[in-house]
Every structure is written in C-alpha cells, then in structure tokens.
Amino acid sequence: MAKTFNSQEEHDAYVAEKKKNKTIWGVIMASSLGTLIEWYDFYIFGSLAVVLATKFFPADNPTAAFLSTLATFAAGFVVRPFGALFFGRLGDIIGRKYTFLVTLLIMGFSTFLIGCVPGYETIGFAAPVLVLILRLLQGLALGGEYGGAATYVAEYAQPHRRGYWTSWIQTTATAGLFISLIVILVTKTSLSAEEFDSWGWRIPFWISILMVGVSYIIRRNMAESPLFAQAKKEGKTSKNPLKESFGNKFNFKFVLLALFGAVMGQGVIWYTGQFYAMSFMQKVMNIESAQVDTMMALALFMATPLFVLFGWLSDKVGRKPIMMIGMLLAIIAYRPIYKTMYKSVDIESKVLAKDGLTEKRTAKVHDKIATDSVFTYHQEKVFVDGTIMKKDSIVHWVAAGPIIKDGKPEAALIKQAITVDPDTRWLLVLLVFLKFQNAVYQRICI
Length: 446
Fold this sequence. Notes:
Blueprint: H1 8-47, H2 49-56, H3 62-78, H4 80-94, H5 96-114, H6 120-123, H7 126-156, H8 162-190, H9 193-198, H10 203-220, H11 226-233, H12 241-246, H13 249-273, H14 275-284, H15 289-303, H16 305-317, H17 319-344, E1 352-365, E2 373-383, E3 388-398, E4 401-402, E5 404-405, E6 408-409, E7 413-419, H18 422-443
Antiparallel strand pairs: 1-2, 2-3, 3-4, 3-7, 5-6
Helix pairs in contact: 1-5, 1-7, 1-8, 1-10, 2-3, 3-7, 4-5, 4-7, 5-7, 5-10, 7-8, 8-15, 8-16, 13-17, 13-18, 14-15, 15-18, 16-17, 17-18
C-alpha cells in the first residue's frame, strides 16, 4: 500500500529519512567489517591462550606459562586507552577515514607476525618479548579503531537513533570472537591433533592478513563523515584535542566520569562474561577445548542480536537505565552462574557406568633425549549421564629412574579433559548466554 502524506514537507522529510538510512547502512557495513576483523585479530590470541602458553613460554611450569599468556593478552587492554587517545587525536586532526586505515594495517600485520614468531624452544625469551610487543601494537590499534568506528557511525546517524545505529558496531566484538572460534574449530577438525599442536595453531593468525586486505580496499573508498567534513570546511576542528579534553576542568570531570563510572564497570562485566567464561571452562572445569569453543560460539550467536535490541531500546528509555540494570544483574547473577557451571561437571557427584573404567600404561622414548623415557598412565571414565573424563599422568624418567627435584621425584604432568553430556552442554550454553546478556546491557550504552 502506498504511503500517503498530508503535505509536501512531510513527503520531503520522509524521502530525506529514507536516503539517510540507505547511506548509513553503507557506512555501517564498511565500518563494521574493519572493526570485526580487528576484534578477530585481537581475540584470536585469547581464544588460543591454552595453546600459546606451551609455545611462547617455558614448559616446565604449565600454570605459570598460562598465567603469563593471559598477562600478555591483558597487556593489549592496558594500552587500549593510550591508543584511543593517540588515534582519537589523529582522527580529530586528519579525519576518521585515514585513521581507520592506519589502525587496520597495524592490527593486521601485528596479528600475522604473531603467527610467524618462532617458539620459546627455538629463540628462548625473545619469543615472549616479541609477542608482547606485537600485542601492545594490537592494543594501540584497537583502542583507536573501536572508538573511531563508533564515532564515525554516530556522526552519520540521526540524533534520535544513535543508540540503534551504533549498536551494529557493538555487534562486531562478539562477531569477532565468534569468527575466531569458528576458524579455530575448522582448523582443528581439518588437521590431526599433532599437526595443529605443531604448526596448525598459526593458521588463524595468518588468515587475518587476507581479511585485512579486503577491508582495506573497502575502507579506502569511504567518504569522510559529514560532521567532520563540515567542521573542517568551517575551520572548527580542534587544534589540540587532548589539551581541550584534559586541560579544561569541566571536560576532565566528564572524562573521569566516563572512565570510572561507565567504562571500568562495563569492562569488568564484559570480559568476565566472555573470556573468563572460556578460560574457566577450559582450565578450572577441564572441559575439552573443542567443546568449549562450540558452546561459546553458540552462546555468542544467540546473544549478538541483543545488541541491536538494547541499542534500539536505549533510544527510547535512555542509556543510563539500561546500563544500571546490566550492572545490577551482573552483581546478582555472576557468582551463582559460575557456581552452577562448576557443579555441572563435578565428577564426584556422577555415577560411573558399568564397565566405564579403562586404564592402561604406555612407555616411549623421549622425543628429544634418546636415553630417557616417557611413561603415560591413561585413565578413562564413562558415567551414566554420558559424561566422559580422560586423564593422563605423564612421567619423565632418566636412565637412573625418575627425575629428582628438591630431594623428591618430579611430580607427574597431569592432563585432564572432560566431555560433557548433551544436557550439561546446553545448560552451559544457556549460562554463558545469560552472562553475555548482562554484558550486552552494559556495552551498548558506552
């Protein structure tokens, strides 16, 4: 049915609105693609943290190696505010478009090079140092990219729909993590476990350079945002954005309010709901890695559309109520959710199936020391509900017997993996989804 208008002015306003919507969809697609790729680049490191711990850090202390990997991952977050300041200032001076291109290339090449860094066994401590430097570059690039993309879209959007339009940029964070998990899953299933552990883990990093190339071509053809173009034409662009933001007491107060009143709480909720959930299932609950990736991907897929829903809602009721509800729900719900997750794989409470215990010992020559041996004691338990637990105790023996450290035999290296039953798997997907939902409440309003 054709739309009727009461006046020419109403018709012209309708046509102008439709034209703006068509324009902004192109802006969102170009901005989102690059931002999605940068989030993919940033998250691929965290998604492979368990593997990277064995490649870039000493293997004699797996716990310390894993914590060092997480610390390296966290370093990228530490420098993000500095990236936002530097590239934000650059964007205010030369424009959003060219700043986009710089951050995209820095992120893409840093990610690709992480996949090229030799392991600790090859170059020693130079390996973690090189990876740390590349992570810092990733953090700087993402700090400039993410805020710049949101600003770019906001400058195109109608004031009464900014929450809705910028929410599409917010979806790129979860989409980037989702794609990183899918790429890892596809790579793992395409290779044997030995091939993936040896060199296959590098493939997700290398793939990034192809996606960056596509995004660069698209972004190179983007136009500058109309608000910035107009301000530049009228000579109203800031000569010193940092001084104007931090040198003015009134402005500085709002900077601190945004940082400690909004962004800090959002950051805690977001990463506790996302990355800590993945790390918790892998390292604390000992769930098999591929199953964790699958559950995380499903929860992300379910939660991502909520960005758009709450972005639209924030235009109706305001940002603050939605942000406060998200914080309150996280305070109330996060601890019970994690407690429920942990109890869902409590082996002590499960009933062993009939003939559900399998045990065997194997011995082989050490891969690197021909005179030494490696003994593996393998235990597999199948429970009535379908849960499967596999546990390997690995001992390194020299010619004279077990290795002695501090007057005692060296402790066995324990590797344990739990494959959860279908009911527990869907319960965990639901619980992770609920954590994501709390994070969405927060992030959409920042």
